[in-house]
# Entry
Amino acid sequence: MRKSNLIFSVLLVCVIVLRSLAAVAGTLSPGEQKQYDKASRYWEKGNEYFKEGKYAKARDMYNKTLKIYDKHIDALLNLAVICEKENNYREAENIYKKIIEFNPDVPDAHHNLGAIYEEQGKTDAALLEYKEAIASDPYFARSYNNMGLIFLNKNMTEQAIENFKKAAQYAPYEIYGYVNLGTAYAGKGEYDSAIEQYNHAIELQPNSAFIYNNRGDAYLNRKMLDYAILSFKKAIEIDPDNYIAYRGIGDAYYLKGENETAIKNYEKSLKLNKEYKNAYLNLGMAYKNIDKKKALEYFEEYRKRESNRQNLEVLDTIVSEIKITN
# Structure
């Protein structure tokens, strides 16, 4: 089975908060409201700098905001996003925890804290934070998506599909729910369902090469080879250096029995990425019945780049068969 090439993770929210989460007129005392309003002027200026990519100036404005009103949730969220952009995840983590301490019902804080835990390999802690985000906002699609990814990595496919469906339902104009749902269906061997989800994603984002690659692989597994070729060609039209798409076209022609055309496409794939192990493997397969010496050379290059024991055992079997028939 050819696996889809990419799943789409919404790990960190790299957008600034332009709406007020922290305070609504009437929920603060008159003195606090006055402080909040004064602080928000710096927050708004910080947002302008943020949108211009002037993160140091944005940080300065958010810090001025917090000096006036230290519970300004919006400024804290945006300050944490700047930390993420600077790869300062420890500081971001501390800020998210502070936000949750001030107000436990901010889904963005729970989600991004969960994403940091996930990056650290703390998937159980990440799941708890994603669940808290959803408890705060039952329509918070990003957390459903990331929960789905954790379940998918744990081979809990049905739970993953359930969460990806909710991600797609609650964020119908974003691609990540559809792409990941397609990947989950492909993992189950339900390629028609996978193709349907990739088509939804393509409608939303018709210039994303990786979606065409994923759909192409689904068509390959359905033995719909001409459709696969068209999908991979569209990926190349968008991204001429798309080595995965050339591999996919090679696979389609190999399955058609057109080895020479398959080899040409595998060679193009390798020319674009000399470390792409699948191209070496597939070149070996294409040469297996044409030039056994070349096949063995390509299999050896694949071996150097493959670490999965099960895949190497399969390779050993193929190589042994070639040597026996030599």
User: Anything to note?
Assistant: The first helix runs from residue 30 to 51. The two ends are 29 Å apart (CA to CA). Residues 1-7, 9-26 have pLDDT under 50 and may be disordered.
